[in-house]
Design a protein that fits this description.
The structure holds 2 protein chains of 2 kinds. By secondary structure, chain A is mainly beta. Chain A is built from no helices and 11 strands. Chain A has strands at about 5, 10-15, 20-25, 30-40, 45-50, 55-60, 60-65, 70-75, 85-95, 95-100, 105-110. Chain B is built from no helices and 11 strands. In chain B, strands 2, 4, 5, 6, 9, 10 and 11 form a 7-stranded mixed beta sheet that branches. The termini of chain B are far apart. The chains are: A mainly beta, B mainly beta. At the A-B interface, strand 5, strand 9 and strand 10 of A face strand 4, strand 5 and strand 10 of B.
Chain lengths: ~110, ~110
């Protein structure tokens, strides 16, 4: 079956540093991927998405990279801020539903 | 403002009782979803609906039921058959079944006493 996983459950970075959160997926037919941010006690919020016909997509301070050869995607956050502290999920969208990984908890140290 | 509204935010239930969690959206989205989240884990799909009067089981549908009588509403009932119902429940919607991101509500935390 499908599965989406993240390499590390926790990540701690210094304020101002860049953060990289990784995700591996198993369904080679997946064609749409989304990163979400979830703050404590709240619902996840959309950060950025990427389709399988792209390798890279940039947003404001965030970049998503997709490597279809090894079925891996990553979220890069530039100049990480305390407000970036949250749980980050990657999700694969297909067959009318989204499959989520377990999440990486990002902690930003001042 | 448009969005997803879940209620109640916190709910306590005795064993053997059914409870219904409300989810309403005013985004005019066709598709709606229910996910369950346990501590330190990702989101697992319970049920989803791509159109009014139609819904499909997700990965962990046992012990749950849903209805989709109106486009804007997708209530979830946690029945007494659900063996471990204590969890954080998240409702979401998307424009349609295949495109766009999910928009989530603030969640409902159910605790079984």
């Amino acid at each position: 079956g499908e599965s989406v996983g993240l390499h590390l459950p926790t990540l701690s970075v210094q304020e101002g540093d860049n953060s990289i959160i990784n995700c591996a997926y198993s369904n080679s037919a997946s064609d749409y991927f989304i990163w979400y941010k979830q703050e404590s006690g709240k619902g996840p919020q959309f950060i950025i998405d990427i389709r399988s016909n792209m390798d890279k997509r940039q947003g404001q301070r965030v970049t998503v990279l997709l490597n279809k050869t090894v079925k891996h995607l990553s979220l890069q956050i530039a100049a990480t801020q305390p407000g970036d502290s949250a749980v980050y999920f990657c999700a694969e969208r297909g067959s009318g539903k989204s499959t989520f990984g377990d999440g990486t908890t990002l902690t930003v140290k001042p | 403002d448009g969005g997803i509204t879940q209620s109640p935010k916190y709910l306590f239930r005795k064993e053997g009782q059914n409870v219904t969690l409300s989810c309403e959206q005013n985004l005019n989205h066709d598709a709606m979803y229910w996910y369950r989240q346990d501590p330190g884990q990702g989101l697992r799909l319970i049920y989803y609906s791509q159109i009014v009067n139609d819904f499909q089981k997700g990965d962990i549908a046992e012990g749950y039921s849903v209805s989709r009588e109106k486009k804007e509403s997708f209530p979830l009932t946690v029945t007494s058959a659900q063996k471990n119902p204590t969890a954080f429940y998240l409702c979401a919607s998307s424009r349609d079944r295949s495109t766009g991101e999910l928009f989530f509500g603030e969640g409902s935390r159910l605790t079984v006493l």
